[in-house]
User: Fold these one by one.
Assistant:
Number 1:
Amino acid sequence: MAAPPSYRIHANTAAELIHYRSYDKPVAGGGTEQCWTRVSTADEEWNIASAGGQKFLIRFDKNFSKKHLATFSKKDWVTEKEKWLQSQQPGQRTDEENWNRAQKQLLENKILRILGARNPLCVCGHFQKASDPAQVATTGHSNSGNCKHAGCVCGGFAAAPSAYVAARTAAAKPDVNPLLGMPTNQSSCIVLNWIPRNEFEAAVAASILAVDPANALPDSAPFPYTHATPFIHLRWSFPGRPGAVRHAQNGNVDVDNGTYVDLGTYKSTAALPGGVTAIWTVAHWSGQG
Ligand SMILES: [Zn+2]
Ligand SMILES: [Zn+2]
C-alpha cells in the first residue's frame, strides 16, 4: 500500500511514491505493535505518465530503493526531539528553521548509517572496503581477501555479525537486510522529500523520452532479465532542487547540493500490464555507489 496516513510529512513530495507494508513488532512485556516498513525493492513499482501520453512502469533491482531513495524520518516525534536539540544550538532561528535543520541532520545520519551498512565489517574488526579512498593500499581487504591493515593477520574476509541486521531481526522486520549487495565505500541517494511529486514524475518521464521518444528502442533485456548488461542510461535531473542528490564517503556527506543522477536501466516490453508503454527497471547508479 501507499504510505500510511500518519506519514503526512511525505505529502505532495516524491516520497509519496514509496510503498509500505505493515509488520508486527514485538514490544517489551510481550505482545506486538503494528509498524510500517518499505516493501522490498523487488516489489516497488511506479506508474509514470509522460507528457505525450506514454505510460511507463518503473521497477527497481538490486535493493536500489533502500540504497538510493532516501526520505526524511517518518516519525514526527523523532524529528521533534532533534528540533529541540537544534534549538539549543547557538544562534536565533525560527521554529521552521530548526525543524528544517532537524530533518537535514536526521537525513545525514541516515545516509551515513546506510553507508556503514553497505561496507561490512570483518571478524578481524576492519571494513571490507577501505573507507577512505586515499587509504586503499593500507586499509580494507584485497580482492583475494587478505586484510591490508598493518599487523592484521586476517587471511580472508568473513563478515562479522551486523548490528543493522540484528536490530531489524529483533524488530521482526520482514526484510532484515534490504541493503545487502556488493560492498561499497561510497553511497549516493536521491532525497525524495526535496522534490515535489509532479516535478519528480515529470523528470522520470522526460529521462525516458530523451533516449526513446517514440518507444522505438528494442528491449535491452529478456523478461525477466537474466544478465547485467546492456544498460540504457537515463538521467533524472532536478535543476531547481540543489540538495536533491547527495553522496557520502568516509564518514561524511561530501556532496549535499547535487541536482541529477545517471542511472543504468533496462527496458522491457514483454508481459506489459494493460495501458503500459514499457517497463523500465532501474538497476544501477552510474559512476558511484
Ligand atoms: Zn583486519
Ligand atoms: Zn578480516
Number 2:
Amino acid sequence: MKLTTQNIYDLYSLSLCERRLFYRFIREEETPPGPFEEVIFMLGHRHEKNHINSLGEYVDVSKVLRDQQPEKTKQLIQNNTPVIYQGVLVGNETINGSQVQIIGIPDIMIYENSSYIIRDCKLARHADEKRHPEILAQLQVYGYLFERNTGKKPVKLEAFLGDSSIVEIPYDDGDSAMIILNKLLDTVLLAGVPYSPVGWSKCQGCGFRGICWDVSVRHNDVALVYGVDQNLAKVFKGEGILTIEHLLNNYDETSLSELKRPWGKSLRKVGKSAQKILLHAKAMKEKKNILLGKVDLPDNPNLVMFDVEGFPPYLDELEKIYLWGIQVYGEKLGPFTPAVSPIAPDGDQKGWESFLLNCQRIFDEYGDIPFIHWHNYEETKMKLYIERYGDINGVAQRVLDNLVDLLPLTKKAMILAEPSYSLKVMEQVANFKRTQDEYGGKWAMAKYIEAVETEDTNVRQEIIDQILKYNEEDLAATWAVFQWLKEQIGQ
Ligand code: SF4
C-alpha cells in the first residue's frame, strides 16, 4: 500500500472531504480540471519555479528516472548538496498492522547547519490549523520522512507563500505526521465509500460532483437542506436521518432547536436556526418556495445593477478587482458601463478611477440612485479600494451610501426550495436565461489571466469581450431577480 503527501491534499483541499480522498485513492473517474483549476496549477508552478530560480544553483531530481529518484535524493543529501529541487523521500512503515510505503516530494531542500531546511511553495497566503491545515500536515510528513531517511531532524519546515512570505512550522518529531498518516490510512482502507455530506460550496468544482451531488438530489439527501451544515448532517446521519422526509417526520421546531452538533471544540444547539431549516426542508419536499413576508425593496423608477469581478487574495497580491460593472435598469435604461483595469502597472488604480467616473455620470443624470448588488463582496471591495486609492469628490462614499444588498432581502422574504441562495441559483428561479455556455466567477478569473498572459492583442480583446458579456449578464440576472422578488412579495 502506498500513501503520498498528495493524499493529504486530496483529503483537505479545497475543503475537508473523506469521500474525495477515498475516490481518488480507488481511482474513481472524475471530471477533468476546468480552466480555473488549470490556471491555478500554472500559477502554482510558476510561483515555485520563480522561487527555486531565485536560490541560485540547484539539482532537479525530477529530471532523473522516476525509479531512481529516491536513491538520488539520498545521495544528494549525503553529499550536502546546497539546494535540492523535487527530491523524493520514501519511508516504509507498519501503521496499525498495515505495511505502508510513504512517499513525499518536498519542493525544495536547502542545506544548513549539517541538515536541511524543507520548504514547500504554495499560492496560499496563510498556513495554519484553520486556514490550509494540509500545508502543515504535508510539511510534517516531509520532516518525518527526512528524519527516517537521514537520522537527522530537519533544521526547519517552511512554507513559501503566495505573497512571498515564509512561514516556519516547528517540526514535532513525527507526531503530527503519524496522526495524519493514520487518518489517511483509516479512510482509504474502508470497505465502502465513507460518509461525507455534500455541501453547496464544498462540492463546487469537485471532480466527483457528478457522483455525490446528483445522487444526493435523487435521494432527497438531508444535507441538501439550506442551513444544514456539515456537522449537523453528520449528527443526522448518526441518528438515521438521511433524507428530507426523515427530518420532517422526526423533528419539530422545539426538538430540532435542542439538538446539539459539534461546534469548534464544543457542542452547540441548533437553536433558532431550527425554524428556517424545517421551512427549507418543507419547501424542498414540496418543491415550492415559501413566502415569509414583505421586505422594503427600493421603489425608485431606476436602479443601478452593480457587480464586480476580482481575484481572491491567494491569486493576486493586491486582491485586485479587474472589472467594475454597472448599468441602470428601470424606466430609463442606461448603457452597460464596465470599468476594466488596463493591463498595465497602474491598471488597478486606473480601473477604480474609471469606475468612479462612470458612477459620477450616473449620479449626474439620475441623482441619488440605489446600487443593487448580490451579497457583500461589492461593499467590501469598495471599502478596500477607498483605503487603497482614496475617493474622488466623494463619489465612492455616495455609492456606498446607496448600496442595497439584495441577498439578505431575498432571504428575509423567501424560503427557497433550493440548496443555495447564490445568484446563479436565484437567476434560474427567476427564469433568467444566459447566452453563454461557459460562465461564472472562476471562469472569468481564468479568462482574465489568459488575457493578461497572451501577447496577441486580438485574442486578448476577444477574451475581454467574453468576460464583459458575462458581467453584463450578471447585471441583467440581478435585475431579473429583483423583479421576480418584487412580484413575489406583491410590491
Ligand atoms: S462532490 Fe463533494 S462530497 Fe463528493 S467528493 Fe467532492 S467534495 Fe466530497
Number 3:
Amino acid sequence: MKLQYRYAVPATWMRDRLDNLLARYTFGALNRCEHLRDAQADVAVLALWSDAAVCARCRLRLKLVGDADSTCDRCGRLSVPTIWPHVAHPSPGVVVLFGLCAGCNGTEVAA
Ligand SMILES: [Zn+2]
Ligand SMILES: [Zn+2]
C-alpha cells in the first residue's frame, strides 16, 4: 500500500511503523471505538503503542499508566521522568500519537 503523507516525510523508522499501523487501521485490524464504527467521527486517533483506533472524544482510552506511559516508542527504553509527546498526521483524518525519550527526541529534532 502506498501512502500519501500530508505533511513532512517522516524518518524511516517512523514511516515503517506508520505504514504498518495505517494498514491495520484501513483493513479493520484495530479495535475501533463505537463512533468510528458508526462513522460518526471525522478524525481517527491512533497511537504507536496501541491496537485501538478511537475518535477525539474517546482519546483518553489510549492513555497508558505507569512504565508503559513512559516507554519510548522509538527505542523502547523507559524514559523517566519525561517522555516527549508527539503527534503525526500521516493521512487526512488520521492522527497518530507517540512518545519519545530525550535521546530519540533529540535525534529526530536534529535530523
Ligand atoms: Zn469514540
Ligand atoms: Zn528512545
Number 4:
Amino acid sequence: MPNNPYHNSRHVTDVTQCMYTLLLATKVAHRLEPIELAAAFVGAICHDLDHPGLSNTWQNNEQTELARKYDGESPLEHHHLDEFVALAAKYDLLGNIEPAQAARFKEIVTEMILATDMARHAKLMEKITASLTDKAFDPMHDEVGINLLLAIALKCSDISNQVRPWTVANRWNAVVYEEFYAEGDLDRAKGRAVAPLQDRTSNDVNKSSVGFIRFIVKPLFQIYADIMKRCADLDDRSMVDSRAVEECLYILDDNMQRYENALNGMDNENTEAQFETLDALADQVGDGGAAAPNCVEINHWFGGSPPNFRTLYLGQIEVDSADFWTNRLLSSSSRSTAENLASKRSHTRTLKSG
Ligand SMILES: [Zn+2]
C-alpha cells in the first residue's frame, strides 16, 4: 500500500478489524461457509490495493491512465480488484481449492470491492431497503443475499472511523481531511472548482462530520443492524445477534453530539459518563461484545505499531472457519476443502457446484 495520509496500510488494518467485528460479534460468521468468510476478509484486506490517494473524480477529470483504462467506471475500485487478481495469481492464493469454490471466492471479493465506490451507494441502499420491506426476505437464504450482506459489511467497515471512540475518531478525521485537502489544492492549482469537503479554506470539519454521520454512516450501520435483526428473526437457532451493531449506533450518536457541541462552541469535556454507559452496554452484550474490547485495542495501538492481526483477532475466532482460514486454505499443505466442508455441512448451506 502507498503511504498516503489516509489510504495506507493502517486504513486497511482498521477496515479489516471492523469487518472482523461486524461478522464475528454478530455471529454472522457462524452462518457463512468457510470460503465465504475467507473471501470476506481478503476482500477487506484488498479493497484499496495500490490506492493513489486521489479520488475517482480526480481520475476522471484528469483522464488519468486508470480513468481511460476503465472508461471512467469506478476506476479506483476496478484497479484495486485487478491488483487483487494479479496478487492471487502470483501467489497461487486459490490453488488449493476446487474451481467452484475459487469462483465463489472471486465473486464475493469482486462484489465487495466494487460496492465500496460511493457512487454506487444510493443504488445499493435502495436495493437493500426495498428487500427488507419484504417480511419474508432472508439475507442469508442464498448466495445473492450473502453477497449483498458482505458488501454492506465492507462498506460499513470502510467508513467506520466515526464508530470508534471519540479520540480515535478525531485522529482518523485529521488524516482523512489531510488527503482530501491535498486533492483540493491540486484542483485549485489546475483552475478547477474545489469540492466543498476538499476545500481547506472553507470546510468546517465539525459541520462536515455531523452531516457525514447523519446522512451516510448512521443510515448504513442502521441498515446493517436491520439485516442482523432480520437474520436473528429468521434464524431458528437464534445465532445471529444485532447488539454489537447497535453498540456502533450508540457511539455514532455520541460522536455526532460531540461534533455538534464543538460546532456550537460548547465544551466536550466531562463526557466520561457517556463512556461509562458505553462500557455498561458492552458488558450486556457479553461474549458477543467484541466491539468494545477491540475499540480499546485500537485506541491503544493507534499511535504506535499495528497489531499482530492473527494473534489479536483471528486467534479469537470461535468457529472452525478460523482453523480453515489460518492453517488450511492458504497453506500449501492444505487439507482437502471437501473434507473440511463435510465436517460443517450439517449446519450450513450447500455451495453451487458450477
Ligand atoms: Zn477504504
